[in-house]
Specification:
Among the domains are: 2-25 and 111-245, Rossmann fold (3-Layer(aba) Sandwich), CATH 3.40.50; 374-441, no CATH class. Helices cover 20% and strands 20% of the residues. The chain has eleven helices and 19 strands. It has helices at 112-119, 157-161, 168-176, 212-219, 233-245, 275-279, 374-377, 385-394, 397-402, 414-419, 426-441, and strands at 2-5, 23-25, 32-34, 44-46, 53-54, 59-63, 70-72, 77-84, 90-96, 126-128, 142-146, 183-187, 199-204, 228-232, 251-257, 265-270, 290-294, 301-303, 315-320. Strands 1-13-12-11-14-10 form a six-stranded mixed sheet. It has a six-stranded mixed sheet with strand order 2-16-15-19-17-18. It has a four-stranded antiparallel sheet with strand order 3-9-8-5, with no helix packed on it. Helix 3 packs across helix 5 (233-245).
Length: 442
């Protein structure tokens, strides 16, 4: 077991973390939804129509470019609505979970690839380069599993995994058949992963140490021509459970966190449930406008209370939109309550261990990129982040390749986006760059 120390990055000690391990039951969810945008790289073509019945584990739609890749329903019921946006783009598939819940039974004697495709678990993995659902016809160099989340207020994946840890060995065994290389698992020094057939690497240090891209970069970087697959330990255990039991488990434990929550806690839920069922009676009633985020504050998706839990996330964060609309002296304030990751305000004298209550205020607007090295201080990867961003904006393919476009994903730039004095949407820029690169090269 190798110990890798991550020095770049920073841990944001936000108010609203969970201090207990008790798991509560969610309020009943009247609807469930699958959001196609959660499965990057798939163009959905519906297998079900509005009004048709569906069983948990049955396909809702498949990829237009490869009908073998399917996305399945997390519950049994009726397809109530197919929500469409501009140019009839499918935004959500809403399911009414009426009737008795039943799960589709899979034949575990099928080969691993076929079973993962049919069950929908294939769509839960990601491929680098491009950070998309893996290409069925490409065999990866290696497969990387991250067993912890270092994002602000992130849940403990070890706690969420719970008793399903016993399925991890089977999951690794299945994944091993899909690659000619090795299966790697990244853990923290506090975690204990039994011998499960994977290469275990221990990571210590601040966020983004839990990002699988950072782990890849510090173990075996992705070069041009390489393909690796990534997933988290929950999905790996879910794969093992599928091959042991013949059914897909869509249940999960969601961390409900943030300064806008009365008492942050873990809630047992099902993928795709309504946010109202998770947040019922939990949002603080202090007359301040709240921002609900499906995910963490750095990479999550802004949602309304009538929204749904997005498939990749096991985390809900609620923060204030704006704590103080009018602030004396603004950015020039000498108040010790002002926060910065740099030594700009006097708050750094109190140390970073002090909890901070940050709101969603941007505190400025877009401005030109200043090559100060601040991106690099937030990104523990062997790339020149600022030059890569400029190359993506200019869409200079040669420079993008030379600067490491193939080994990054939008989440790798989330912390740099938070620290960015230029206020650029780095994750959006990286996502658009990867999409353009894929269209050009594939």
């Amino acid at each position: 077991m190798a110990l890798i120390k991550i020095k770049k990055g920073v841990d944001l000690n936000l108010k609203g973390k969970i201090t207990q391990t008790q798991v509560f039951d969610q309020a009943p969810s009247t609807l469930y939804a699958v959001i196609p945008d959660d499965f990057t790289g798939i163009i959905p073509r519906m297998d079900k129509k509005e009004g048709e019945s569906v069983v948990a584990g049955e396909p809702l739609y498949h990829d237009k470019n490869d009908e073998r890749i399917k996305v399945t329903s997390p519950v049994s019921g009726t397809v109530k609505q197919i929500v469409r946006g501009n140019r009839r783009k499918i935004m959500a598939v809403v399911i009414d979970p009426s009737g008795e819940q039943e799960s589709r039974k899979f034949e575990t004697r099928d080969n691993a690839k076929t079973l993962l495709l049919e069950s929908g678990l294939w769509a839960m993995m990601r491929q680098r380069p491009y950070d998309i659902v893996p290409n069925v016809d490409v065999r990866p160099r290696d497969i990387f599993i991250t067993a912890f989340d270092s994002a602000p207020l992130a849940p403990s994946l070890d706690l969420i995994l719970g008793d399903d840890k016993r399925f991890l060995e089977k999951g690794v065994e299945v994944l091993s058949t899909l690659t000619d290389g090795r299966v790697y698992i990244g853990v923290t020094p506090e975690m204990s992963i039994d011998d499960c057939g994977a290469v275990v690497n221990t990571f210590s240090g601040p966020h983004p140490a839990g990002n699988v891209g950072v782990q890849i970069a510090n173990v075996k970087p992705v070069n041009k021509g390489d393909v690796v697959w990534t997933l988290d330990v929950i999905t790996a255990a879910r794969i093992g459970k599928l091959f042991e039991t013949g059914t897909v488990d869509y249940s999960t434990v969601v961390a409900v966190t943030g300064s806008g929550i009365i008492e942050p806690c873990y809630v047992k839920a099902t993928m795709g449930c309504t946010l109202a069922s998770l947040l019922s009676g939990r949002i603080a009633d202090d007359e301040k406008e709240k921002r609900i985020i499906s995910g963490n504050v750095l990479t999550g998706v802004k949602e309304n209370i009538d929204g749904y839990l997005h498939a990749p996330y096991r985390h809900i964060t609620v923060i204030n939109e704006i704590n103080k609309k009018d602030e004396f002296m603004g950015w020039a304030s000498l108040s010790p309550k002002k926060f910065s990751i740099y030594r700009v305000f006097t708050s750094w004298l109190l140390g970073r261990h002090k909890e901070v209550d940050l709101d969603a205020k941007l505190n400025g607007g877009e401005r030109a990129i200043v090559l100060s090295g601040e991106y690099d201080r937030m990104l523990p990867m062997d790339i020149y982040a600022e030059f890569l961003i400029k190359a993506i904006i200019a869409f200079d393919i040669d420079k993008m390749e030379q600067l490491g476009i193939y080994e990054v994903a939008p989440e790798d730039f989330a912390l740099a986006e938070f620290a960015d004095t230029s206020k650029l949407e780095l994750q959006r820029i990286v996502r658009e760059g990867l999409d353009k690169m894929r269209a050009e090269m594939c």
